[in-house]
Amino acid sequence: MVRLxxxxxxxxxxxxxxxxxxxxxxxELLPGDVCHAVLGQGATEKSLESCRERxxxxxxxxxxxxxxLGRLTTGELGTSLANDLQISDQIGARxxxxxxxxxxxxxxxxxxxxxxxxxxxxxxxxxxDRGISIGTLCFISVxxxxxxxxxxxxxxxxLRWMPAVANYRDLxxxxxxxxxxALALPIATLTFAVLAHMTRMTRTAVLNVMSSPYxxxxxxxxxxxxxxxxxxxxxxxxxxxxxxxxxNLAYLVSGVxxxxxxFRIPGLGTLMVESVIYRDIPTVQAIGMLxxxxxxGFNLIADVMAIIANPRLRHPx
Amino acid sequence: MSxxxxxxxxxxxxxxxxxxxxxxxxxVGFWLLVALFGPALAPHLESDIxxxxxxxxxxxxxxxxxxxxxxxxxxxxxxxxxxxxxxxxLVTLLSFSLGVILGFIAAISGRWIDGLMSxxxxxxMAFPSIILALIVMxxxxxxxxxxxxxxxxxDSTRVFRLSRALAxxxxxxxxxxxARSRGESLWWITVREILPNTLAPLAAEFGIxxxxxxxxxxxxxxxxxxxxxxxxxxxxxxxxxxxxxxFGSAAALMxxxxxxxxxxxxxxxxxxxxRRMGGDVSQELMN
Lengths: 317, 287
Hints:
A: mainly alpha, 13 helices, 78% helix, B: mainly alpha, MetI-like fold, disordered N terminus
């Protein structure tokens, strides 16, 4: 197992490295160079020159890549092309909003999904199961902005239960209840996005185990269906379920970009989208790298957990 | 006995035409008709300003009210159907041909070419798709053409993986061996032996990719990076009218609901199809 784990972790490192090269190389795809693209037609020879100077475009590509990688690891990301602020300061100011949103979503969505998945598995092929199946299919299919807009329309506009737009800038010092009130709708939107998939996969994982002979044995000895699932099937379904949870946490990386845009939360997602519109390439690269590392990391955790949770891999013959 | 063992065979026979399939077909058929004939039937042009009242409620101006510039929401919704579905279909056709052709080539080529193509594919799949699109668009700009190609390429990585795996499975079967020993060419084997046997899963994949393309394109348009105003696209319409929610306008809700109903409709059909093959649509959709 240790060899398998080391191999998987090494693979994760290689993937991260390849991803970093591709993010860096994306800007080299341009005909001309970054400065031409950013400054546009009206650029004078002088402004182009100073821009190239600043981005050190005079140096060969591999040197710049290594320097960029070095700066990434030390957090010295340089200044933004759009507003001359330090990129690391901007990221630092907004990261907390994003992390808090994703973490609170995970805290709610994961237990709820496992519970719903178990109910669906215990009552497989019943009307409850059908209902959960159709409901989750719908939530998997709809875009985040639909869920978000619908929730705002019903809860904030029609029923006036919560604020449609909260002032997220003040939230860094707000007390817990204020934070919850302001973030309730974004969290609910993201939860719907990841809940459905986790629920379905939990159900599938449990039902897969249910077809093994030892479950038949448990049924034959007279255990109730609930007991068979909780005591006999669930322990062996933990590995795939944990795997699915980690994969869905990775999915939060994409979901967060759209949800932040719906609710205008000043987080990393909105910063990245703004930077794409202003073609502030250094900022896009830095945040893109951050998102990708998180994504690769969660995928790695998913696989590592699956290896650890599988007894056959834990005790190889 | 256990639910898992009884699920495929019995329900297969029972679920020839389930209600959910019929609902799916009705929804998708409806939107197809709207995309084809909607713009011709629309009372106004997509960019016509019909009133000086922003966010007029439904019924007062036009059928569904007016948007933030005083344009007719109903007309824009009809135009948007053609734009959103047309773009999604174009992207899906592109990504599908690219993915299937490259996937089959990888499957029937030797280890080196297959290994190289698969590793490149793995590298692209290591990115969350929307983040990859953002990075590419920051470098190349945000024109419609660039968005179509970017989304198609990102999408094709999923098609590549599936079609390569399908072709791999089939290329080791006896009847392919027979064809090989008969001296058939690689082209003949691919087109006459492998392709027909992968059609069913590929058809399901087409539906999944179509949904994915709709969601992806409208999300990018919603972020302000896809279709640019004044063109009517459902994602753009949601973005434009988001502010109106504060005044109680449903102008942002309607295009969002249109996207949602269309993707649910397609997925109901795909889900029925996959269930008959013993799969699950949710597993496919997350990537």
